[in-house]
Every structure is written in C-alpha cells, then in structure tokens.
Amino acid sequence: xxxVAATDDRVRLAQRLLRSTVIWVDPxxxxxxxxxxxxxxxxxxxxxxxxxxxxLQPAGSHSFYDGHATASHxxxxxxxxxxxxxxxxxxxxxxxxxxxxxxxxxxxEDGMVLKSGASHRIVPVGHLVLLPRNGDWSIxxxxxxxxxVLSVTSEALHGRRSGKPRLGEPRVVPPGxxxxxxxxxxxxxxxxxxxxxxxxxxxxxxxxxxxxxxxxHQVAASTSDAGSSATQxxxxxxxxxxxxxRLDDPDLVPARVAQAEGISERYLQKLFETVGDNFxxxxxxxxxxxxxxxxxxxxxxxxxxxxxxxxxxFGDSAHFSRAFRHRFGLPPxxxxxxxxxxxxxxxxxxxxxxxxxxxxxxxxxNSAEARSxxxxxxxxxxxxxxxxxxxLPVEASRVHWGYFSRSLPPxxxxxxxxxxxxxxxxxHASDDPDLMxxxxxxxxxxxxxxxxxxxxxxxxxxxxxxxxxxRGAGEGFGVHICTGPVAVxxxxxxxxxxxxxxxxxxxxxxxxxxxxxxxxxxxxxxWGYHYNEFLGGPKPREIVTIYxxxxxxxxxxxxxxxxxxxxxxxxPFGVVHTTYDYPGVPVVSATIKRRHAVLDGISIPLRPHFGxxxxxxxxxxxxxxxxxxxxxxxxxxxxxxxxxxxxLPVSVPGALLSVxxxxxxxxxxxLSGTAIECSMTGTFEVILHKKADLAGRPFxxxxxxxxxxxxxxxxxxxxxxxxxxEFGAQGQSEVYAKSSLDLAMKDAFRKMRRFLMNTKGLxxxxxxxxxxxxxxxxxxxxxxxxxxxxxILSKRLFRDAT
Amino acid sequence: xxxxxxPVSPKTVHWGYFSKKVPPxLTLxxxxxxxxxxxxxHANDDxxxMxxxxxxxxxxxxxxxxxxxVARRGSGPxxxxxxRGAGEGIGVHLLxxxVAIxxxxxxxxxxxxxxxxxxxxxCSACxxxxxxxxxxxxNWGFHYHDLIEEPKPREVxxxxxxxxxxxxxxxxxYNYVWTPQTDPDGIVHSTIDYxxxxxxxxxxxxxxxxxxxxxxxxxxxxxxxxxxxSEADFVSSIPPSYTGGNIDDWRIGKGARMFYPVAVxxxxxxxxxxxxxxxxxxxGGTAIETSLTGDFEFILHKKADLAGTQLxxxxxxxxxxxxxxxxYGFTYPNYLAALGADAQTEIANHSSLDRAMRDAFxxxxxFLMIVHGLxxxxxxxxxxxxxxxxxxxxxxxxxxxxxxxxxxxxxxx
Lengths: 802, 413
Fold this sequence. Notes:
Shape of chain B: globular
InterPro entries (chain B): FmdA_AmdA (IPR004304)
Shape of chain A: elongated
Pfam families (chain B): FmdA_AmdA (PF03069)
Protein name (chain B): Acetamidase/formamidase family protein
Organism (chain B): Bradyrhizobium campsiandrae
Oligomer: heterodimer
C-alpha cells in the first residue's frame, strides 16, 4: 500500500503545484483578443480565426473586417464561448461542418438582421438565435457587432446521445421562460470569462451545454412542420436527461425509466435503436464518462476514486476499475495521476483581476443639441516662403471646454508644414482668479461668468440642461479647456498627423500686482488615486495647492505658495459645488482658509508639457475630455514637452486638432488627480502624412498616439485602447468603471510588440526578448478613467536608427 | 574594516530559496566589505559558454545520475518522488550566502552598498575571456498566453554576449525554442520548470542573425538580494517581499545602497540572480541573466538609532542612489504574512499591478511624511507633481511598481 500512498501524495503535490508559483498567469483556456495586437494587414486573418473558433466566418463580398475589434474567448472540450465587439459586418456559418448542434448567438446592445434564404428578419437585442451549422443564412450587423456566441460540438457530449435536434433553418427564440434563463446565463458567463477559475468555468460550460441541448430540442420539436422524428428526438433527449440525473442509482433499469416517462420498455429500447445505441450500453458509457470528467478535474481531487465510482452507480470499485480500463485503456488511479501531471505542465490556473463594479451614471447626451455658434476667425497669419505661421489666441469663442467633437467648426485651417502658436489656459486658473485670471483679457473672456452670462456655457460632454447631477451645462463630464480645433487642409481619416512641439512658454500673470510672475495650481481631488484612503482627518477632503513657477533657464522649478481645503463654492448661477465637480467655478477667497509655509524647502524641477493634444474622435459627437484614447486627448505624459512629437491617427476630415491642459510639471502617475496646472502657450509644427505615403514610416499602421522624443519612442497603452468602440453607447461611463493598470500594461505590451515587429522588422521572439531586456514600462496616470502605462524604447538600441 | 571573499561553490550557495536555517557561508561585522561571486541559474542554457572550464560554476551545476552537487532547488519537498526534482523548482535563483552580520537583530536595518559589479568571463577554450548571458521568454512571462505567432505557446532562449570594451552593451548571439530536456535523474522537463537542467544542444535548433541591428545598453545589477524572512524556514526565491529578494530592479547596481529590515538574528543576507540588462517590467520572464561578481559593504543600523534618520519606520526595502530614493510596492507587501500557510503558492493567483501601485503609493507617502516631515496633504501634492511611478516587474508572482523621488527636490533651503 505504500506505493499507493506515495502516488496519492504525488497527486496532491501535483494539485498544489498546479496552483503554485511564478509559472501561472491566466486561466489556460481564456483568450483575450484585440485587433491592437495586429498590423492592419494581418487583422482580417486574425479576426477570421476568432470567428472560426465559434463556427462562423465572414460573409459577403466585403468579407473581411479590419477595424477595431475585441473579443473574450474561452473554451473547454468541445465548448467555445465568445463575446465580441467589432464594427459593422456580416457573418455566415463556417462550412462544411460535421457538427449537429446549432450555434447559439445573441446580440447585445444593438440588433441585427438575420437573412435566411430569401427572408430577412430583424432580431432585437437579447433575443437568442439558434443557427444550424450548415445552411444558407447570414447575419448582418448593420451598426456595431456586439454579440455572444456559444458553439458546442459533439466532443463536449462525451459520447452522450441525446437525439439530434434538427433545425432546418435559423430559429429566433422568443424571450420568456427557459430561453430567458439561458440568455441570462450566457450573458453573465460571457461577462466574467476572464475571472472564472478553471473549475468554475468547466462547471458553467457543462451547464451551458445542457441548456443549449434542451432549448434546441424544444425549438426543433415546436416547429410546425416537424415530423414524428423531431418528437422522438425530444423524447429521447428528455429520457437522457432523466438518466443523467439518476446515474448514481445502481438500480437504474429500463423498466423504471420507461415507467417514469409513461412509455413501454420496448418503445424505450426502440428510441435508443433510432440513434444506434441501446439503453444498457448508454448508461454505462455515461457513468464512465462522468467518472472520467471528475477524475480529470482538479477541483474534485479531494474525492477518493471509490467515492466517485459510487456516485455514478458503481458499487464495486474493482468492477469500476476494470470497466474504466476497458473503456479508456488506463486504470482510474493512473489516469488521475496522469491528468494531474498534465495539468501541472500546462500551468492552468485561475488568474486574478477584478474590475470595479459600479459604473458612473451615464451621461444622457442630447445629440440634437444646437451647436454653439462659434465665430470663425483665421488668426494672425504671417507668410514666410510657402510655410505659414499662424497664431491662435485664447478667448471664449476659440475654446471648447471639457469635450472633443467632430462637429465643431474649425477656428482656423492650416496646411501641412505650417507652424502655429496656440495659447492655452488651465481650467484651474479659477482656483485663484486673482493670480491667474485678473487682468488677462483672454482668461477673463473664457472664465467670464456672472449671474446673467456665462461666456463658455458648455463644460463637459454631458447634457446642456444638467439633468444628470445638476452641476451645470455639460455636467463637468470632461474638464479641460481646449483651444481649437485647428483644421488641417486635406487631412482625411487614415492619414497620420504629426504634431511637433517647438516651444512651450508659461503664461505670465497679467494682474499688475503680480506682473511678470507665473502661477499654477494642483488639486488633490476626488478623482485622485489617494482619495479613498486618507490617513488623517477630515476624510475625505480636497486640497488645492497654489504654486509659483520660476522659469529661469538655469534651474527651472516650481515652489508652493499656499494651500487650502476646498470649501463648498457657489457658482454665479447659484449652484453649490461641495466638491470639485465642475470646472472653472471661481473660488471666493473669503470662503477658504489659506495655509502658508507648505512644502517648505521643496523645489520641483519643471517639465512643461501639454496634458491634452487631440484630434477629434469619429465614434460619437461629444466625447468627455478626461479619458485618453486612440485619438490622443488627455495623455498626461510629461514627455510631451518641448522637442517632442506626437503622431495621431486622423479620424475625421480636417483632423480637428485641439490643445490644452497645460502642465508646468507632473510625475509619472499624476497621483492626486492633477499636475501643476499652469496656462501656457505652445508653438507647433503640424505635418500631415497621407495614408498612401505611410508605408515604411515608423508611424505606419498607427492606431494610437505615438510619442517621439530626441532619445526615445514612447508608446501609450491604456486600460481600453479604444473605449468608445469597445463599450459602445456605454463607453463614456464604462471606461471609468474599468480602470486597470493590469489591462493598460497588456495594451502597452501589445503595442510595443507590434511596433518592434512592424517598424523594426523583428520576429515575435526577438521582440519579446528585447522588451524584457531593454524596454521600460512606466505608469503614465492612474486618474483619467482610462489608466495609462507607457512603454519606452530607447533609440540608442538601434545602431542604424535614424 | 575587513575585506572578505566569498567564491561560489556548492557549500556557499543555496538554490531557489531564502532560509534562516542555512548555516552562514560567511560572518562579518558592520563596516566590513566582501567580494561575492554569483552565478546565473540560466548558465546551463549554454553550458559551453557559461559553465565549461569554470571550476566554480562546474562544481555548483554538477549533476549526474550518481551525484547532484546542489540537490535542493526551491522551497518545495525534498523527499521524493518528485514531479520536477528536489525542491520542486518552487524558487529558482542561485544565491550566494547567507552572509551573517554580527549583532544584527530583528528591528534593525541592514544597509548594503554595491561598490562595484563585474561580469564573470567564460573559461571555456573557445570563448575564454568573453562574457555571455541568457534571456528566456518563459512560461511565467507576461506575454506567454498572448502570443500571435505559431507555435503557441513556446519558450524561447536567447543567448547574448556582453561587450565591455567600451560603453558596455549586450548583443544577441543566437536563439532557440525550448525542447523537452531530460535531466540526469530521468525527469523530462517539457517546459522550463526546474532550474539548472542542462540543455542538450543536439535537441535544439539554433537561429543565428537575430536582433542583428540591436545593441542593448548594459545595466549590470543583481535581480535578487535580500535577507532571510522570519515567517517560514524555506521561502521561495521568486516572489519579492518585505526583506527584499527578487525585486528585479535594474537600478540595484553599482553605486546603489539598499536598505532591508532585519527579520532574523544575524540578518542572513544572500545575493544572486545577476543580470547584465533588464527593462522595467522584465516582460518575458527573465533579464539577460549573466554571472556577475560584486563588491559589497555592509552597515548595520541598530533599531535604537533609527529615529530621526531616513530609516525611521522602515519595514520594507528602500533604494538610495546619488540622485533618488525608490520604494517598492508589491501586490502583497508581505505575502507570507498576508496569505497564510499556502502563501508561497497562493501568491501567484493574485498578481496585480493595481495592488502594487497602491502599495507603492502608501510606502512613498509614509516616507515623505515620516522622514521629510510633510503633512499628508503636502505628501500627496508632491507625489503627483514630483514622484515617478514605474513598473518594476510583472513576472515574479508578487508584481512590483516602484515609486521614485528625486533628491534635488529637497535640496534648496
């Protein structure tokens, strides 16, 4: 018996190793997919693979989809579940197929059109569709494709015969009753694919198989033209389910089953004959298969082999052992050990991760809202040879506050190669209006707000009537004052806009009392990373620190002047802001208590940069300025300073470049929620690279903001690289609920791999080795909803690099 | 002040774990210095270049059917039968030591200054005098379940040569895909699951001319350095924790001063996992793993003397360089205490940068408040505008984010 005990130890050790140490990252069977991993040209093929995993393929003449797409996929033996989010497209069955079970597909968020033969049918959100594996049908997603797909093949049944549900054509299952239960379970499972442990997933997957089988039989039997074969198949399925429930009963005999179903024993046998089987063989097969599944399941390792045998109606473990070996060629004990070792070498283990659950209240957008009637100005222009220099001063009519929009009329149109000086204001100037607004005509114009008149009414992408929280027009869903947009002549979607930062100059106070001095503000705000875990009271609190900026060439630095705790501020329209929830509310100095001698003896080196550089996104009209994304926006990376260049993918005609959120300095992380926010004026050179000319350039195949400095390439990873496309209508609230450095790290990794492979011509293995040895990943920010991790590739690595 | 030398040998190394139970290889006093040799546990990825002819390396890696010079590799079971081998590879780093410090007691802080770091040249006839290292894109790498090229998954070993003639840099020599390797005891390692298994070069296919236009600037450093924890007798060397260990920060090189809280009498310092270069994140699972020798100085700071110094309240590792202080946030700052009996295996199920960031934030806040006398509000404002957070590693189970603050911020009056 000694050797048996040792074997059990081995199994236990294997189980423990299975959960152990460095080696295991994600559940083995979970596969995230994002198009960001692939070069543009490789995307159709990669997407084809995603569809094929659930028995689908692209349909129609424009068969390939090559835009942004994400999917979560998980599989078990013969079972595949995928949740997809991608752009408009059509799909059809992957034929030919030897499988019998229909594919279950459910649209989420947007409806779809089911084409079968000559008929068209609109399928609303949340309706299940059962699709035969072979057949003349296709599904058209006219807007975005957002769907959950379940594919079950015969492998999942482990020899279980259940009669074959015959669906001649696709069937839309009306909601209600059983179908609802199935739909909800599909949805819930698909949403948690990445966090389920392997054991949990296996259990759920088996349940989904059972549910699908039952539903498929119900649907097949209910078909009006279904013949007796469908009825028979449904009956056989029901009998098989009865058997499945009673496998533990050693006295499970045909007579009792037939009696329970109200049919004769002979008819029962006949039913099995229709599928080429007999009752006794079927029951034994199912018992062995179930035992097989339990023996290979790590979560069942606490049960002894005889317990498992008993649970499936084998009273005698020697008999079980013989039968098992006869069926699977290996005695149960050896089989279990082999499986444990196999699992160990496969390193399958449950991953961590868990997203914050609560989404912020969704902004109800009123897209029909009248656009602000912004006067078009052309700015000062000075002509020098062919290239021209432009100047865009800041004033109320030349800014948009807290949002990006593809439908804003441009302030100015410039040509590729032109330079432009753009004045920007920090939205935090109102933290001390006396220092940062008074006497400054541009700032006074933008911040101008009295009981009767608010010069820039909309602040944020929220509703103009403030119907969500009542904070003010736009609801502060987005806070940055952006100057622009600047249209670039001939810019079209697919082009790349290169924005070179030639110079950055802080904006001096125009208040005669402080003439020539420069000030900034930093707020430890409610959206800061620290906010939920203060050590001392009062908890929580928001603290504004006002800094003076010393831009001397020797050692440019900032020093704190004073700080104060935010107190409820009543804005000129009478709305009380108990927290810093709406930008540009002028702080009344009498309401606050200034603390001096803060950060005494500390001087912070400057890193002047623009937090926000954006082109207009294509997906929706008003986009919150806070979460950065593929179009740039609130990147909050201090490397975007003088001498740096950012390449942005153009999404709308004219590109519509906007700049704002200027910072005197910021640390990687931007922990408290803000940098030292300080109004600045930038000079930019703007170069348009047409789509046709991108091949071979470092910024070819660009789907994200790419930063270049004198020494480095800096790639920007986000929790959700294109959150507008990924989350659809809910994007602007979901993105805040799903902030994660772990996801941003993944995105940065994928982008750097793609850059090294496509731009530097490395193989995947070379790229990964190089990333491990020489690429530095850092935290960009943890306060902008869509958290950022950047990857820095030193140009020094490449001898031949330009 | 005395200067000691600690060469590598089966008697002066322990493999894959920290332990308060291993007899010290060297005992010294505060203020003493030591030259310590370390070996990379990846040397057998290319035996000829990194072991052959090197008496120290040969003695440590010696493993035949009859004799395995260092049997235990990892904190796992030492009684068979084994899945992978003695110690079960739960912990992989070859560590030299422990070095005991006279008079060190729990509550004290040990300062370790790295005075110099030198690569260990090859002794084999064909490559004598040249220095090599190995980088493995391994199954514990961040990329492993997210590969795009076939075959999936795969492990890839890249051999680098380190050139120190001028500004030191590393250059790739060749790479190969890991194939199942059979160790002298007959266990087949179909993945890289046990350290020190010699790769039979007849079973692999070398691919030359890789990374041909790339020079990786050297960042010589020790990936694993730290003290024995008190919680368990044998602690896996993989997850870093409050007494240091496998921090994998490339800034822990020449000129660095590391501070560790002492957890057991004598402190029990060990060092290993030498790296020629590594990026922040160590993405593929390893750095350029290269045997190195370091000169160290040890200074013991007694508990009673810590108040009012920069070490006041320090209960986790801290790095000081000429220009910065760095603090190491982990998914679990002390995973051994937090996760209980199964901590050494359980930690791998919790890896998260989000938690590590949280920890780094707290440690830096504590430092700014206690050592620099800032209020909480000042500390938070300063962290937002003057501190940089970066990804240390995403491959050591207890993932790391470091928070760094520049000293010149505090320089003026």
